[in-house]
Specification:
The protein is α/β, with parallel strands linked by helices. The chain is 41% helix and 15% strand. The protein contains 8 helices and 7 strands. It has helices at residues 16-25, 43-50, 62-71, 94-102, 125-142, 157-163, 172-182, 205-224, and strands at residues 3-9, 31-36, 53-56, 79-82, 108-112, 153-156, 187-191. A 7-stranded mixed beta sheet has the order 3-2-1-4-6-5-7, with helices on both faces. Helix 1 runs parallel beside helix 2 (43-50), helix 5 (125-142) runs parallel beside helix 7 (172-182) and helix 5 packs parallel to helix 8 (205-224). The longest helix is centred in the C-terminal third of the chain and has 20 residues, at 205-224. It starts with a strand and ends with a helix.
Amino acid sequence: MNVSVIIPALNEEEPIANVVRECLATNIPSEIIVVDNGSDDRTADRAREAGAKVVGDPRHGYGRACLAGIRALSPACEIIVFLDGDGSDCPEFMKQFVDPIAAGNYDFVIGSRTRGQREPGSMNFQQISAGRLAGWLISILYGVRYTDMCPFRAIKRDALEKLSMKEETYGWNLEMQMKAARAHLRILEVPVNHRCGVSKVSGTIRGTFVAGARIIATFVRIALAKL
């Protein structure tokens, strides 16, 4: 199946070229789209030089960047892979995401960093706890248990379109997981390894607080929405 990779990026000048090259080395994606989310460094140039298609959305927001990437997809795309641009995700696991979808067995495959091998310091206590708590609450609401809100994931394009994603900030990943569970998509969680990246969110107290607030707001909004 035709696979496209979307990589939201904000000031990822140092790691982005390696991320793109690692994705290309899998020989899986037909296109790699890096969304420059208002960087003030050479993120876009580095990504383009490494072989990615670069689109821009200057309005900061993780969800906004993901939505911009979706708008830039080629018409032939059938499976969309999302991963971060800070070098923390491991593209060599991409086959484990794409194959179950291409085989027709699943619609949505998400990584679990907590079930895989993590470099020391690659995830803080808040990230681990938030992923497990969200997974527990989602299991109560929809009967689907996640162990992480890992940004590394793959989904059928037509399945994603049915979810009507709207979140423009840090709640994007949780919105997808909740809506996928509510829509009864066939969901698979796979363990993935995780490396230390250049985090602009979890690496700061303010960033952690802001992300946490958006995630809570997203959970409440989706949970209270009509089925």
